[in-house]
Design goal:
Strand order of the largest sheet: 3-7-8-6-5-4
Distance between the termini: 63 Å
CATH topology of the largest domain: Transferase(Phosphotransferase), domain 1
Helix content: 25-40%
Order of helices and strands: HEEHEEEEHHEEEHHEEHHHHHH
Bound molecules: adenosine-5'-diphosphate, magnesium ion
Largest sheet: 6 strands, antiparallel
Number of helices: 12
Strand content: 15-25%
CATH superfamily of the largest domain: Transferase(Phosphotransferase) domain 1
Structural class: alpha+beta
Number of strands: 11
Length: 307
């Protein structure tokens, strides 16, 4: 009876007063371990859920007086094999190597909690990250004209700077896609203010399934070789292509076949008229990694010269 009442409320969405983002508060709380278990909770105050994805549930919260996001393994994962807890630990270790890089939110802490279920006590890790205000690029892509050409190029350059620093720190992101890029855009000033690259949850994985934006070497390592820095270059190339052209160069449901299949991608530039940019994207999106630019740093210099 009680559960039914809660389910009735599931459709309630609240709007974040700061970003205008819609939040699914009750739904997220219900999917967290908090409703079903009692546990000791050190120093984190959760405000509401932001998203529920492959890496766990993400909440906005306060920790040590700071505005943070807290990534928590899903309830199912805690009950079953607790794999996501290990993933969060690895993401934290990876994130710590990136501290000080301008477009990466700071990885603040990894908290260990004891969750008491009826049968046993389970250790759970919570990842605490600096909160960054912004909307995901995936949401902006639906509204094509919000960013003008100059801002799109700015965004590209900032991502290249960030990614070059990430690679220098010995980390490959492996999941660059519009949902992992946060953009702060001022509607009143009508300009791009900040760009953030989030979610290093895939970087420690040898191989994790990535759909539309995955490189040929991620989709088909037997043919294209190991996943390395140039894999991020390909994924970023697809993001930029979509940002400039309004869509990916293939139907989404055929992504894997198109990316891993024979022949180069069919890049048809109908909106982008800048030949330098077309050349750059074409080279970023060559299937054979060795024929792309040799590194993000080299690409960044090329972009500076050409644009
Ligand atoms: N530091 C952050 N500040 C604000 N929002 C964030 C932050 N990190 C992630 N997000 C938001 O939460 C979403 C999910 O986080 P992410 O780390 O990508 O988890 P998942 O592994 O589920 O994809 C992102 O798409 C982004 O909208
Ligand atoms: Mg993500």
């Amino acid at each position: 009876m009680f559960k039914l009442c809660i389910r009735d409320l599931l459709s309630i969405k609240i709007k974040d007063p700061v970003t205008g983002r819609k939040l699914y508060w009750l739904e997220k709380i219900l999917f967290s371990p908090f409703v079903l278990f009692s546990f000791s909770f050190g120093g984190v105050q959760l405000l509401y859920g932001i998203s529920r994805g492959s890496g766990g549930c993400l909440y906005r919260g306060i920790y040590d007086g700071r505005d943070v996001v807290v990534k928590i393994p899903s309830r199912q994962s805690i009950i079953s094999n607790n794999r996501e807890t290990e993933d969060l630990r690895q993401e934290f270790e990876c994130g710590r190597k990136l501290s000080g890089i301008e477009c990466i939110p700071e990885y603040i802490d990894l908290l260990k909690l004891s969750v008491n279920t009826v049968a046993e006590t389970i250790d759970v890790s919570l990842l605490v990250l600096e909160y960054k205000e912004g909307v995901t690029l995936s949401r902006l892509l639906g509204k094509r004209d919000i960013l003008n050409m100059h801002e799109k190029y700015q965004l590209f350059k900032r991502l290249l700077d960030g990614l070059a620093a990430v690679h220098r720190a010995g980390v490959v992101h492996k999941d660059i896609n519009p949902a992992n890029i946060l953009v702060k855009f001022s509607l009143t000033k009508k300009r791009l203010e900040d760009v953030w690259l989030v979610d290093f949850g895939a970087s420690h994985h040898e191989r994790r399934f990535v759909a539309e934006y995955g490189s040929p070497e991620q989709q088909m390592p037997i043919v294209f070789g190991d996943v390395g820095e140039l894999s991020d270059m390909f994924s970023l190339g697809l993001v930029m292509y979509e940002l400039l052209e309004g869509d990916l160069p293939f139907p989404r449901d055929l992504a894997m076949r198109e990316i891993a299949g024979q022949g180069e991608l069919n890049l048809q530039f109908s909106t982008c008229e800048d030949s330098a940019m077309k050349q750059i994207l074409t080279r970023m999106l060559v299937k054979e990694p060795g024929k792309r630019f040799s590194s993000i740093a080299v690409l960044r210099r090329k972009v500076e010269q050409m644009m």
